[in-house]
Amino acid sequence: MAENHDVSHLQPYIDRGQQMAESEAAQRQLMRRKRFDTIAVHGIYGLEAVMANQGSINEPAYLTPAQHFENSDHMETALAYLMPAWAYSRIANPTLHYLEETLALLEGYGFAGEVSCCTASSGMAAIFLATNPFLVEEQRGESINIVVSSRCYGGTFMLFSERYAKERGIDVRWVKDPLDLSEWQSLVDSQTRFLFGEMPSNPGLAVFDIEQVADLAHQAGVPLIVDSTVATPALLRPLCFGADIVVQSVSKSMNTGGLAIAGAVIARHQIPSQVGPDELKDNYALYLKLLPGRDFGPSLSPFSALMILNDLRTLRSKLDRLSRNAMQVASFLDQHAGVTAVSYPGLKNDPGYPVASRLMTLVDAEEESGQTVNRYGHLLSFRVAGGVASTRRFFDRLQMIMRATDLGRIKSIATIPAISTHQQQGDEGRSLADIPPDLVRLNVGGEHPLDIIDDLEQALQR
Ligand SMILES: *Cc1c(COP(=O)(O)O)cnc(C)c1O
Q: What does the buried/exposed string (b/e) look like for 33-51 if buried means 16 or more CB atoms within 10 Å of the residue's CB?
């Protein structure tokens, strides 16, 4: 941060920065008192920011690499991080700032403490950024470990198993049944740097009890990192259940229109960690943004940020509708003779149902119905009777549902994870992650649910 020299000549800019920070803090406090939909629509882009942007009712996309400064003092103050500024788009950018503040407010909705966000160019960039700073060796050759639910996205599996375990010698301890607290417990020790889980998981829809696993992490003095891409903050806010850091592939349900790839790390302030400077623990997302993010450079395009802001405004109502569609499709598949198993945490016979029902609720639904409303998201997976060959026949017969490695969309999309998203991890890796070769993952879209069911029905028929 600031060099250790006399900065008194910068005082006017430091003072101006102070005022800017206070005015933004006031806007943030104002928005924290609003409801989820209001935050999703406006974020931190209030009337003052509107007027500073020539009255533009939408956040402008600042498609410019750098900021012009008034003079050398202004530049020096900004680059010493002594006043809010953005300087260069790899480090910060006004459009990214609007998105980051919105995501922090949404993910921190209902959470009492302060929350910050750092965006990244993809979900994987966010997961790398969120995890890498904890993996420093304080002494050369030190043996360190991480404890991770094996029921996770293929990219995450590869990052941890190839890049971290094979290339860097980090001991990656896989939890095979994330619902089993004793398994998590048996793997954590004094050399553990963090615990990581997906809730719910892609593609298996496995769940875990965030509260219990967070307690375990905190007893060990380390953070719990939760990937809640499949749920989004409209259905699950892990920080409220004790998680320290949330990672999101913003490419998915946060952005159902699918006009951009993006990721985000959202963290509460004052996180536990066995390593790193005070800045890391005080405000992890800001630390990532200003230091490791600056040096690794996985910054998001401001154009993508605008596409996402635009899609986010209707997040809650979309996730409500999409989840209801998925529930109807899951019930159909569950009763179909051509389907041997369905994984969807909203089905009463799903092993994740009790935990998911405690943690996954549609935000602010009580206002309309007077009671909490469970919604379980729009991703599900199932196995087709007859093995791999009939699974592929079913898949190839789909007439409307798209065959693609994608999810989170307003359009229904199916994939066979073993030959797509989870192909690279091999048989052994797939069995660890519980991905059988006849598993179909289905992203239930916003089409009429009966049309989705019709397409599935005709493809399942012999
Ligand atoms: C897609 C996905 C990621 C990776 O996100 P990208 O934006 O594709 O890099 C991470 N976690 C989960 C659960 C995902 O579904």
A: eeebbebbebbbbbeebee
Tokens of 432: 């660890």
Q: What percent of the chain has pLDDT over 70?
A: 99
Q: How far is CA 394 from the centre of its chain?
A: 31
CATH hierarchy code of domain 90-312: 3.40.640.10
The model's confidence at residue 2, banded by pLDDT at 50, 70 and 90, is: very low
| Residue type for position 111 | F
Task: Using the mean position of ligand 1's atoms as its centre, give its distance from the Cα of residue 377 in Å.
Answer: 15
Question: Where along the chain do the CATH 3.40.640.10 domains lie?
Answer: 90-312
Each residue of 347-389: pLDDT tens digit? 999 999 999 999 999 999 988 888 999 999 999 999 999 999 9
Region 129-147: what's the mean pLDDT? 93
What is the whole-number distance in angstroms between the Cα of residue 126 and the centre of ligand 1? 9
Q: Does residue 198 have its Cβ closer than 6 Å to ligand 1?
A: yes
Sign of the Cα torsion 48, 51, 53, 57 reads positive
Dihedral, CA of residue 415, residue 417, residue 418 and residue 422, to nearest 10? 140
What's the token pair of residue 90?
């790899």
**pLDDT for position 3:** 52
Would the CB of 406 count as within 6 Å of ligand 1?
A: no
Bridge partners of 361?
A: 374
Each residue's pLDDT tens digit, 146-174 = 999 999 999 999 999 999 999 999 999 99
Q: List where CATH 3.90.1150.10 sits in the chain.
A: 315-461
Distance 153 CA to ligand 1 centre (A): 7
Give the β-pairing of 263-268 and 224-227: unpaired
Single pTM value for the model:
0.96
Helix (H, G, I), strand (E, B) or coil at 354: helix
Paired strand residues for 374:
361
- The single residue listed with the structure tokens 């660890």 is 432
Decide if pLDDT at 4 tops 70.
no
Confirm or reject: Cβ of 196 under 6 Å from ligand 1: no
DSSP structure class, residue 83: S
The residue nearest atom 8 of ligand 1, judged by CA position, is 123
* The residue type at 4: N
**What residues does 173 pair with on adjacent strands?**
147
Measure 54 CA to ligand 1 centroid, in angstroms.
36
* Alpha carbon distance 462, 457 (integer Å): 10
Local structure of residue 347 (DSSP, 8 states):
S
Tell me which CATH homologous superfamily contains domain 315-461: Aspartate Aminotransferase, domain 1 (3.90.1150.10)
Q: What are the backbone angles phi and psi of residue 427, rounded to the nearest 5°?
A: -60, -45
Section 60-73 average pLDDT: 96
Contact indicator for 172, 162 with CB cutoff of 8 Å:
no
